[in-house]
Amino acid sequence: MLKSCLVLGVLSVLLFGAESPNPYIEASKKKKDPHVTSTHGKPVPRYQLLPPVTAKKPKPKPKPKPKIIIDENGKEVVVQEEEVKLSPQELELKEAKMKCIDDDGAWCWKVGIYYLEGKIVEQDYDEALKAFEAGCAKKSGGACYNAGYLYEFGRGDIPYDHAKALDYFLKSCNYGYDRGCGAWRDMK
């Protein structure tokens, strides 16, 4: 009787496995799928940079309270202020400006690009240069490169200045922006 129980126990172990499957081990044995983006459905490396930030829909704001002012005769007058609606690109520019102020040089670079290209706002080289210089001060290599570009070619009211362009290209190279290294070598 003891032998038959022992034989049945050995057979059950052989047939059904000695241990219950561990979900953590089983999960690690399965072949993992490569990272897939949600927009393209193509595998991309995990170290790929994030896609550019797009404008998000603003949260609905409560209706503004009517503004009450007192006119010349001492009577109260109710004035309704009209809400200005911004396009998604204008919202993105506004967000980029706020993040630039919060010490992020890459966002200053983005603001400068908006002013340099003039697609969303009117093209303004002086504003672009201010944004690029602020981004360069916050160690953005791309912003330094674009500031050097503006000084190299003297766009708008910005005069041609070889020394400043060379300095900005060198900073760009030091911050790891390869195009800045190439521009510095070409100007030197």
Automatic annotation (TrEMBL):
Region (Disordered): 27-67
Summary of the function given for this chain in its UniProt record: Hydrolyzes 6-aminopenicillinic acid and 7-aminocephalosporanic acid (ACA) derivatives.
Record bears the keyword Ligase: no
Gene3D superfamilies: Tetratricopeptide repeat domain
PANTHER family: CYTOCHROME C OXIDASE ASSEMBLY FACTOR 7 (PTHR13891:SF1)
Localization, UniProt: Secreted
GO molecular function, one term: beta-lactamase activity
Enzyme class: hydrolase
Entry's family note: Belongs to the hcp beta-lactamase family.
Source domain of life: Bacteria
Catalytic activities: a beta-lactam + H2O = a substituted beta-amino acid
Major location category of this protein: secreted
Keyword Repeat: yes
Keywords of the record: Antibiotic resistance, Disulfide bond, Hydrolase, Repeat, Secreted, TPR repeat
The protein's name: Beta-lactamase
Pfam families cross-referenced by the UniProt entry: Sel1 (PF08238)
GO CC term (a single one): extracellular region
InterPro entries documented for this protein: HcpB-like (IPR040239), Sel1-like (IPR006597), TPR-like_helical_dom_sf (IPR011990)
Bias (Basic residues) ranges: 56-66
Lineage of origin: Bacteria, Pseudomonadati, Campylobacterota, Epsilonproteobacteria, Campylobacterales
GO biological process entries: response to antibiotic
The enzyme's E.C. designation: 3.5.2.6
